[in-house]
Amino acid sequence: MEQNNLIDAIIYCMENQNIDFYFNPSTLDISEIKKNNYVELPKWSSFDGFQNMENFTASLKNKIHRDELIDVLKNGKGVFRNFKDVLKKYPSLEYKYKQYKYNEIKNRVVDFLDSLSINKSLFLTNEDNGYELNLSDFDIKIIDEKIEIESPIIKKDFISNIEYNDKNIKTALIKDTDNNNIGVINYFIDDKTIIITYYYVEPNFRDLGLFKLAFNSIIKNENCDYLIISVVNKDQILSTMIENLNFEKVYTEYKIKL
Q1: Does a structural domain hold residue 134?
Q2: Does a structural domain hold residue 133?
Q3: Whole-prediction pTM value?
Q4: Of 56, 165, 216, 248, which one is least surrounded by beta carbons within 10 A?
Q5: Residue 53: pLDDT over 90
Q6: Which of 7-11, 44-48, 159-163, 227-231 has the least mean pLDDT?
Q7: How far, rounded to the nearest angstrom, does the alpha carbon of residue 201 sit from its chain's CA centroid?
Q8: Are residues 94 and 30 in the same domain?
Q9: In this structure, what DSSP letter does residue 150 have?
Q10: C-alpha pair distances (Å), 47 with each of 19, 70, 79, 164
Q11: How far apart are CA 87 and CA 94, in angstroms?
Q12: Which residues pair with 175 in a beta bridge?
């Protein structure tokens, strides 16, 4: 078996609850037949799956997603099917859960291989296995003008907060996989400085890293030396994220040299 496929192959076997699989630590081969020098692969049971769903739900900061999944877990009947139905309503959440589940099973596989004293370089890379959105999941479109936004929620907040019409406002539109507008960042350029005047992400898509994704797209698109953002309404989550990006706090604003 190719070494790069080892972990995924073991995960596939673990999730198959109908067949027992065996593993040879010397050759890295997997077999449905128990042979000499083969050990049984660990299982991923329905109990493991339920516990994984509970842990994932508890980890969510988005209250809309968390509360809906908690209701499913409390109901009990048809919990796995109903959990999947909720995830399908929110494609970004479904993708996030798949990565969460994959990482948990992967960690179990790594522990199993490590217990057999197998060289980790055969099955581990330096790549980060955490969840991170990228431009293939969502699209960020930079528009050199103020625009109307179709979503009533976004439009209401967007219009009421714009105060810089004379400063050539630009818009970074956050679009989902169906090309729907799900968030915005408004900004203008003044003396080689990006000044963010407004930001919004629809509640169903929060806690996924979309602001950071749009934020990085703006920086790449503009040839500027500084960026300033004012954090409104004591947004502690955003403040913490910005501080982790090495911004300097100046009164109620944050500033960073690009």
Answers
A1: no
A2: no
A3: 0.57
A4: 165
A5: yes
A6: 159-163
A7: 14
A8: yes
A9: S
A10: 17, 17, 12, 55
A11: 5
A12: 139, 181
Any idea what the CATH number is for the domain that residue 238 is in?
3.40.630.30
**DSSP-assigned letter for residue 203:** G
CB of 214 within 8 A of CB of 245? no
Can you give the residue range of the structural domain that contains 170? 139-257
Say if residue 188's pLDDT is above 90.
Answer: no
Quickly tell me which residue has 């900061």 as its tokens: 61
The residues, ordered by sequence, that sit 6+ positions from 196 with a Cβ below 8 Å of its Cβ are 185, 186, 187, 218, 227, 228, 229, 230
CA–CA distance, 197 with 169 (Å, rounded to integer) = 9
Instruction: Give buried/exposed letters for 160-172 (b at 16+ CB in 10 A, else e).
Output: eeeebeeeebbbb
Between residues 56 and 255, the one the model is more confident about:
56
CA distance 145 to 225: 22
Number of domains the chain contains = 2
230 three-state secondary structure: strand
Instruction: Tell me: do 117 and 5 sit in the same domain.
Output: yes
Q: Has residue 197 been placed in a domain?
A: yes
Six token digits for residue 134: 């990228």
